[in-house]
Structure formats: structure tokens, C-alpha cells
Amino acid sequence: MSHWKLSLRSNLINTVVFYITISGVAASYAQSSPESPASVPGSATPVSIDATPPVPVKEEKVAEEKVQEVFVTGSRIPRASKEGPTSVTVITGADLEQQGFRNVYDALSAQTQNTGMTQGADYGNTFTPAANTISLRGLGPNHTLILVNGRRVADYPVAYDGSVNFVNLANIPSALVDRIEILNSGASAIYGSDAIAGVVNIILKKEISGYDINVKAGGTQAGGGANQRIQFSGGGTSGDLTGLFGVEISQRQPIWSRQRDFMSSETLDGTTPRRTNSQLNVDTGNYITPGGAGCGGLANSFDHSLVMVQSSQGPYCGSGKALPSYWTTETANQSENLYGALTYQLSGISPKTEVFSDFMVGFNTTKNNTRGPNWTSEGAGNGYFYNQNTGNDESWYRRIAPEEIGGADRYDKKWDDTAANWSVGVRGDIPGSTWNYEAAYNISGYSSRASVPLLLSNVDSFFLGPKLGVNSDGVAIYAPNANNFYQPLTPAQFNSITGVATSQNKSWTQTLSLTANGELFNLPAGPVRLAGVAELGSQGFSNTPDPLINQGVFYNQSEAEGASGSRKRYALGAELNIPITKELITTVAGRYDDYSFAGRNDGKFTYNMGIEFRPVNTLLFRGNLATSFRAPDMNYIYSSVTRGYYASTTDYYLCQLSGQPLAGCSYNNYSPGANYIQTGSKDLKPEDGKSWSYGVVWSPTSNFDVSADFWRIQIDNLVTNLDPDTILHNEANCRSGVLDINSPTCVDAISRVIRNPANAPLNPNAIEDILVNPINAAQERTSGIDLSAKWRIKTSDIGTFLLKANSTLVLSHYYKQFANDPDENLRDSLTNPDWRSKVNASVTWILNKWTNTVQVTRYGSLPNANQTSRISPFALVNYSVNYQITPAASVSLIVNNVFNSVKQDSSAGWPFYPVGNYNPYGREGWLEFNYHFGK
């Protein structure tokens, strides 16, 4: 049991009171009314084979069949029709399994609206490898509002890419997911800040009868990534009390780059082996011939791949497996998640009045590895020393092999995360009226403890011997034994020069809300309905680095400053639904949000106007115009002066200066990358957003529908940290004359890149620091088209078929840093890793006890890693089959990447695939068994 880490947590889990919530009124924003069944709002694609298709509803049919009202994400007003003025995409709990999605994040990242590349848990060297997020419309993870049961949850406590705040999608328990709704447009007038690119509402189950146990296990065909999951959930009703609970425990082994043939060595494309051991004469710029046994003394290192490399600067030891030996392309993960809910009916007050509460907590441990330990002499100084034995200024370099430290996982980084959400409230109706209300309090917190192995400050003396002082030039003096430098370490020796730095990071948010909705008065076409909301909330975060860093305990670590901050907010909003005629309905919403932080207040009023026109029963024309805003990320506001280094950097200027093409340039994607200095700003203005969309839904029968929607989103005063790769790319183009060196962009880029002097003894013109800070950029805007279709075919002999298809085509994407700059075409840029198009299609076949689903995702073209051309589109195929053994038991086989396809790109060398856009896992498979106890 300790293997699952439950023993340390059992006391906490045993104290958890399981709560229940059933769908309520307005504050949940996305749930059925209490008296309704689990009605699911949808888009033009229905949520399941048996779900009511999104056909515009006739008034007489509503009366005849008593169609019950539902809440659709994007509106607080319950409505009979499941289609509104803005499209909503629905992913059901069944879709998570049938379409081969491993978890909630997988399902969301596969959606066609998610055209932006993000640095996820498997990206490698990032600020947040223990978290996953999405980028709807390519506008970044901080422009999509993520809700759970219609309520905000705490941000991940470490900023994405060191810059923006976001919600982690890696620890949502899929066993308890009823459905996920994606509002495909801006909605600040409904939800407030963040809802610029869209809203994702993850709705958990509200009713369970009996008990379910689900066991799932699988792995990859090529090795690594073995994983297991067990889920147990249940619930029931006793009198006025209803409850449910769910527990999910999972474990996943890592996938190492060395386990994938196509990237098991950097030298597969003919490049020179990576330098692992070298002695450089700084005065001549040439490497010194290894002494003693030379490279042969380390021949067993890096899987017996270390060799002598003859370069134009002289010999050094190198290996093509230095990076793949350490690099994990899929993180190791272990998690325990639980959810509980209680509802108590206050029947003495009103049949619809109830007290509710729900609670969710998750524990996650993530491990990854990216690069392994490496050392440069006097790395905390100028990188070289005076060798008393030779009389030369020298720079020594050493990569330490996994064989020397007891295995690559000895140098794993680890994140121990805990996330919790709790809601409590009361809801009901006002007797004798059409009005419903809800008063609720919600609090959410996230804690992440990061443990990173680092070399200790004694490493210089370990390799070079005692420091003998400094010479007249201020250069440190050593008298090292070169023979010892080429002898392998023992694990005990390595432990003597290695420690662990531990940082503590926390975030929280809380909201007190009061909502109500009901009918105001009647018009000839029907009642005018009103919904209102009042919110009072606050949020905060803190980042606390290990104090040992500033005490000089670790080798070559810049001073680390903690950061923390908080802000308060309040909001008032209202929404009107007005039936002009039976064919024409309009929606108008307005909301005022006020944020108080850093001694200032920022307020913003946003509005939303929608229209639905149904000239005939089977046809819907819709349109929506909305303004949005986003308060500056707290990380941008409160970030202290932060010093660090990027995982890897491409120095475009030095590539140009040396005359090397980017593909083979020694300054391309070098690791570790350049140092950076980052600061925050309390003077940032809020972002202003504007979006509009229009479309059509055609449903000639209950078994067929198709929709098309055009959308456009614009953000003014965009708060952004300039991307370091963009800065370096611009700087090189400015220095070379490709861009006007006097333009605002060039003046800014050149001022941000601090370089060594051209006559520096070591690394002339090399990057010393990149200065990064947030600014209000002028504008970013994008537009595109969403298409979707569904066709259900019923036969008497060969079962039922359901065909679904969704696609997104990005028509334009522009960015302007300063008002006087020309537009930068991001859509067609060879430096932008986002997709220009995405298509999902699936076929489900149900015959007797068998259900088969084939899911195909086609990704559009991307720039190659060399940024010289585009690589072709890529498609992945998933397959699942489920067999219902008995009414209570079923078994499933799930295969992802049926054709074992890996999109490769060797244009810029290792790792030979588009990192972040695709994964190199290859074919994966799982067996799953589910059993239901009780009704």
C-alpha cells in the first residue's frame, strides 16, 4: 500500500466527509435545473447516440412533451433549446473512453478549437512539467477560463513558461466526469475575467446509484509508459439525503528517449557527438588532448558510446547518447484523486430547497529528467581558471554519465502536488413564483513542492583540487590532476557533490456568490427572463525558493527571490432573454468586474449580445457580439527580480555571424540555454477583448445535423512577456538588416540581449543575459471557421452507426507588439508552432453487445524545427471496442495510434520530432474492466 503512497494520506482521506451536489441554478452556470434529469446541452454534435439531437424546438412540441429547461455553458438562463447564439462543444464521460482519451487533458487538447501548441507535462525542460493546459484559438493558456462545476478553481502555483497563470488539467478525475462543455467564444459578460478565447466547464456527476469499479492497465508497444488505474465510485439516496463519492488511483512509468530508436542517439542524422569531457585552452581557443587514459577511461559511459572526437579546435570526448540517456519524453506520474458530495432536501421549507456541498482533493507526484548533471569550471564566475601546472587559462567541462551516479533516475526532478476544492451552499425557489436562487461559497487551493537535484558548490574543488587564490587578473588559480579528470565517478563520489533544492509554491481562490433567475413579464412570443449574479472573491499565490540557494550551497545558482501577491474582486451582472417573435430570440448580458491589487483598482464593464433566428423548425441562424477583458496575471504583477537560465536557446545572431546554416549551427538549440533576468510590473493595464461570431445550424431530421460558425477574436493591450526565442530572432534580423534597426521592435530587441564583448577571452559575443519583463503589447487578433456534423444511421440487421466530424480552420492570426509596428502574420510564420487547421472524425458502430469506435484526428501543417519550411499534415487513429458481458459487467480494449505513427522532423537535429505538437510514444494499448453493483 505504501507503493501507492496511501499510508501517509489515509488519515486525511478518512476525515473527508463525502458531499453531493446536484445541478442547480444560476451560479453553477452549466447544470440542469433540480427537477430535470441529466439533460445535456450540446452543440451541433450530439453528446451521445441516445441524446436528444440539437434540433431547434417547436413551441407546440415543448408544451406537448414538457421539454425541460437546461443550463448551457455561456448562459445563466435555463432554456428549452440546447442551441444558443454561440456554439458549445460537448464531450461526454463516455467519449473519454470510447475515443481513446487517456484523461481530461487528452480530450481537451484533441479538440479542434485547441490550435495552440502548449508546453505540457511531457515537453521537457519547462517551468511546469507537472502540469498540462490548453490554448484555445492559439491565444495562450491564460485566455481560456477553466471551471469545475461552473466554479473557478485555483491556478497552478507556478506560472506557465515563467510568465502566465493557468489552471492545471492533469489531475481532474475522469471517473467522475459527466461531461465537458466548451463555449467557443468570449464570455466575460457571463463569467468575468479570463473568458476571452472561450470557457471550459468540467461538470462532474451529480447522481450515482449503486457502486462501480473500473480497472484499466496498459502501456506502449515500444516500451516504457506502463500504466495502471483503478476507480471506485458509488452513491445513493436515503430519505432527504443524497450522496456520492469517487476515488481514482493511477500510476504511470516514464518513457525515456533512449527507448525510442529514432531519437536514441543525437548522431543519427550525422551530427557530431555531443561534448561530454573537454579541456579548452582559453588563450588559443583549442582543446587540449585528454591526458592519462583519455576518453578510453570513460568508454563505458553513456551506454558504451563515448568516443574521442577530432574537431577543428582539437580533440574532446563526446557521445551521441548524452541527451537521450537522461531525457524523459513522458513523465512518471502517480496520483490519488477523490470526490464526494452531499445534498439534503429541506422539504419542510420547499420541495426544491436544498443544502449542498461537494469536495474534491487530488495528490499527484510527477518525475521527469532533462539533461543530467554537467559542470563547467568556475561556472559561477567567468567559466575558466588559471592552470598553475600548464601556465594557461583553461576551461574544463564534464557531463556526468548515468553509470556514474547509479542510474539516470538518480537525477530525477520531482513535484509533489496537492489540489483541493470545496463548495457549500443553499438553493431553491421562491414559492408561488418562477424564480430560483442559489447562495454558495467556494474555496480552492493548490500546493506544489518541487525537489530539484543540483551540484553543490564544492564541485570545483572536487574536479580541480583546492583553490590556490587568484592571479593579478582576478582569475582563480588551480593545479588540477588531468589524469583524474578522465576517471569515472562512483555513486558515492557523486553523492558527495550533489544536493537537492526544494521550493514551496501555493495558490488559492475563494468566491462568495448569489445568483437568481426567473421570469419578468410576458410578451406575445413568450416570457422575458432575467438572471442576475453578485460575486465577491479573492485569490493569491506564493513562490518560496529554497533558502539554501542564496546561501551559496549549490553550484552556479543565481540568487532566487520569492514572490507572492493577492487581489480582491467583486462583480455584478445581469442577463436578459427576450423572445421578439416565436422565430427570433435575443440575449443581452452585462457585467461589471472590479479588481483591487497592488494599491490600485481596475474596473471593467463588458457586454454580450446574441441573436437566434429560426425561420423554420429545422434551421437556426445565430450570431453573437461580446466584449471581454482580462486582469493582468498576478505573476506579471508581483514577480520579483528572477534570475535563471532557459533549458535551451538558439542564438540566431551567432549562427549568422559564424556563417553556419541553422540546421547544423553549433549555437542552435544549445543546452543549457542563455541566462535570463525577469521582473514584474504593477503598472500593467487590463487587456480588452472583443469577439463576434455568426453561424447556421441545419437539422433536417433528428438523426442528422450540420453547423458552420465564423468567429473572430481581438485582444488590445495584450499583456505578455516577450518570448525569448522571438527576441533573439528579432535581434539577429535587426543586426543583419532584415528588419529596420531603428524600428521600435529592433530597438527593444537589441536592448534586451546583453552579450559578451567581441574581444572577450572566452565566448566572445555570447549571450550574457536576456532581459524579460511584461508589457502591454498593442494587439493580437485571430479569426477562423468551425464546422461540425453528425449523422446517426439505424438499421434493423447490422446495428446503429454514428458518424461525427468537427473541424477548425484558422483564417488569420496577427500580432503587433507596438502600435507603430506592422502586423506580424503568426498564422503563416515559420516561428509559430501553432496549427492552422485541425479535424476530428469518428465512427461508432453498435451491434448487440458490441460497441466499436474509430477516432481520427488530422493536424494541419507546422513549421519545421529549422524554421525554413513547413512539414506536412499528420493524422492519428484511435480505436476502442467494448463488450457488455452482462448488464453489470463490461470489458474494453483501447488502442491509441493504431498505425504506430510518429511524426518525425530531423531538420534541426535531436530530438527529431516536433516537441509539444506531437508525442513520440507510438502505439499504446489498454485493457479495461468495469463492474456495477446495485441498481
UniProtKB/TrEMBL annotation:
It comes from the Bacteria. Its main location: membrane. Residues 82-199 form the TonB-dependent receptor plug domain. It holds the Pfam family Plug. It is a multi-pass membrane protein. Residues 380-898 form the TonB-dependent receptor-like beta-barrel domain. It is found in: Cell outer membrane. Keywords: Cell outer membrane, Membrane, Receptor, TonB box, Transmembrane, Transmembrane beta strand, Transport. InterPro entries: Beta-barrel_TonB, Beta-barrel_TonB_sf, Plug_dom, Plug_dom_sf, TonB-dep_rcpt-like. GO terms for cellular component: cell outer membrane. Residues 31-53 are annotated as: Disordered. Belongs to the TonB-dependent receptor family. PANTHER family: PTHR47234, TONB-DEPENDENT RECEPTOR. This is TonB-dependent receptor. It comes from Glaciimonas soli.
